[in-house]
Amino acid sequence: DGGITQSPKYLFRKEGQNVTLSCEQNLNHDAMYWYRQDPGQGLRLIYYSQIVNDFQKGDIAEGYSVSREKKESFPLTVTSAQKNPTAFYLCASSGWTEAFFGQGTRLTVV
Amino acid sequence: AQSVAQPEDQVNVAEGNPLTVKCTYSVSGNPYLFWYVQYPNRGLQFLLKYITGDNLVKGSYGFEAEFNKSQTSFHLKKPSALVSDSALYFCAGRVTTDSWGKLQFGAGTQVVVTP
To answer: What is the pLDDT of residue B77?
Structure first.
């Protein structure tokens, strides 16, 4: 929605593996966010970035890492240190007066 | 601290009746406020926003919201609910004077519309 693309839609991870979720936006937004959503729950902020080459930890950053080398891209890596990674992951981008979300990636540990 | 709150975990309403989903905010400056809807296994869809101007904001799918500065509220309303309005609704806000402008989300309200 609104020019944000998340991929893949579904992702399966084996125990001990790192996996990377992609988030790309063509809205020229400065800010980008990653959220985690567990079944029946709200959104929990993992990381956010207001500018290229800078990002801040959110409420549940442990076991995750991000990079912001380009304005358009904000990939999230779920590392093996994240003990319970099965969840729905949402990426968002925002300007001052608007904010849009991607369609989400469902990550499952197998 | 800046925050957005949705006091109700779930709202139940019969089809055809008015629907209200509550949101309150706590910010030190003037807020930008947003409403989103989420259907199962989907991302959040933008419904409407308040930036400045008229306190009554009209959005998608027949929804509207009223910004009330004295009550620090931004309740979402629909005059006549449909079964298809059953979904998870999120209120969000940011402070206009915050240089970071980080979005704050409420916990979400599940709306159940019964036929």
So the answer is: 98
